[in-house]
């Protein structure tokens, strides 16, 4: 299963001006990562897209018991994005391995999540 999402970095930057958005959507770990990057808004937009792509891959959406913070986008030792699901999202992703790709260019961010069966 696959999901994809794209967002304008400026739209995410505007949303981040409201602290409630930042705290509702991004985990503490994600915030620390993004805030330490050369262009934090680009990183926030990429992680936002990855979360949206993940719920699209499982044919779900936020607000159906799954909250954005239930999906955490981290990074492995090489800097590649990873996906960890907690809370209600853990049931949706429990049977899958997740591959995540994030890119940004020209004021836009895009992410793709590919889920493959663990079995």
Write up what this structure looks like:
This protein is α+β, with helices and mostly antiparallel strands and 119 residues long. Helix content is 40%, strand content 31%. It contains five helices and five strands; from the N terminus they run βααααββαββ. The protein has helices at 9-16, 19-25, 28-35, 40-57, 87-93, and strands spanning 2-8, 71-75, 81-85, 96-105, 108-117. It has a three-stranded antiparallel beta sheet. A two-stranded antiparallel ribbon has the order 2-3. Helix 1 (9-16) packs across helix 4 (40-57) and helix 3 runs antiparallel to helix 4. The longest helix has 18 residues, at 40-57. It is globular and about 40 Å long. The relative contact order is 0.23. The model has no long low-confidence stretch (mean pLDDT 94).
Describe the secondary-structure layout.
Layout: E1 2-8, H1 9-16, H2 19-25, H3 28-35, H4 40-57, E2 71-75, E3 81-85, H5 87-93, E4 96-105, E5 108-117
Antiparallel strand pairs: 1-5, 2-3, 4-5
Helix pairs in contact: 1-4, 3-4
| Strand content range | 25-35%
Helix content: 40-55%
Largest sheet: 3 strands, antiparallel
Shape: globular
Distance between the termini: 14 Å
Instruction: Compute the number of strand runs.
Output: 5
- Biggest sheet, strands in spatial order? 1-5-4
As residue ranges, the low-confidence spans are none
User: What is the arithmetic mean of pLDDT?
Assistant: 94
What's the order of the H and E elements? EHHHHEEHEE
Instruction: Tell me the number of helical segments per DSSP (H or I, 4 or more residues long).
Output: 5
Radius of gyration: 13 Å
- Briefly note the structural class of the backbone: alpha+beta
């Amino acid at each position: 299963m696959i999901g994809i999402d794209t967002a304008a970095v400026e739209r995410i930057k505007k949303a981040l001006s409201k602290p409630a958005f930042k705290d509702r959507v991004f985990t503490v770990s994600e915030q620390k990562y993004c805030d330490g990057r050369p262009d934090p808004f680009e990183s926030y937009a990429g992680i936002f897209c990855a979360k949206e792509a993940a719920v699209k891959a499982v044919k779900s959406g936020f607000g159906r018991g799954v909250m954005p913070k239930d999906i955490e986008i981290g990074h492995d030792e090489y800097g590649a994005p990873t996906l960890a699901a907690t809370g209600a999202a853990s049931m949706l992703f429990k049977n899958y391995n997740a591959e995540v790709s994030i890119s940004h260019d020209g004021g836009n961010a895009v992410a793709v999540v590919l889920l493959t069966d663990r079995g």
